[in-house]
């Protein structure tokens, strides 16, 4: 079984921070990292974010201002020398958004300045990608995109510092490209069920948030089995002062984005005794228009529709309990 760091890759507003809190309940056996590549992507000297300088300035003077991709990798791999490592991060932090060509950051080329990998769509060379066991988490764009948009308008934008919604940060295109690439590179399950056979998805664990909400314990138990992580149902609860203080320290660099999960006491699935009412497209448009106005509803709908095909493609690989 693999003991590589587990790198859970996702997009914005996918319930991934709630999943991260599940694994943060095991500090004695796991070291967890919260979006470490984002430190270099948004704030460091090798910054690749399309966000404006005014939004970047919100976090200038922090410990991340001089963070490089090499520094991030060094901290992750050093931690992996001890306990098992679990990392949650976003696809566009390591795969350029908006279809931009990838190039390796200078800090990763100090020993091999002429390194080129034309087919690699990421900012990490293949020998580095191979050091991680990749896994993926997706959520229906009809749920994630409105949640993304909400973070960029008042009152939440007063906390997040994000005052403009960028459809390029939806993240599904990058997630799909990265999934296909690391799957082809064999960066997923090396050995499943002790037999050496891969999982149904071809060797990469992929969770759909809808399935996770329907059956948290079943999906997470299978995910942990395939990634060689320990699981018990008590991981679905976090209600101690120590756990809450740890979460606040870890998530403080992204104020406003994690308030719900910080206020929670566990990962609670859907109540199947309550009928689930599906909203029609017309209902959704009316709801978004009421909350965000005509322009906001238009942008949300266009972004949702543009990303549904990528979500549908990835969903076919999702784990089933």
SSE map:
Layout: E1 6-10, H1 16-24, E2 30-34, H2 37-43, H3 53-56, H4 69-79, E3 84-90, H5 126-129, E4 133-138, H6 141-150, H7 157-160, H8 172-185, E5 205-208, H9 209-214, H10 216-227, H11 241-251, H12 259-262, H13 281-315
Parallel strand pairs: 1-3, 1-4, 2-3, 4-5
Helix pairs in contact: 6-13, 8-13
Give the N-to-C terminal Cα separation.
Answer: 20 Å
Number of strands: 5
Strand content: 5-15%
Number of helices: 13
Structural class: alpha/beta
Q: What keyword list fits this structure?
A:
five-stranded parallel sheet, alpha/beta, 321 residues
At a glance:
The chain has helices spanning 16-24, 37-43, 53-56, 69-79, 126-129, 141-150, 157-160, 172-185, 209-214, 216-227, 241-251, 259-262, 281-315; strands at residues 6-10, 30-34, 84-90, 133-138, 205-208.
Describe this structure in words.
The chain is 41% helix and 8% strand. It is α/β, with parallel strands linked by helices and 321 residues long. The two termini are 20 Å apart.
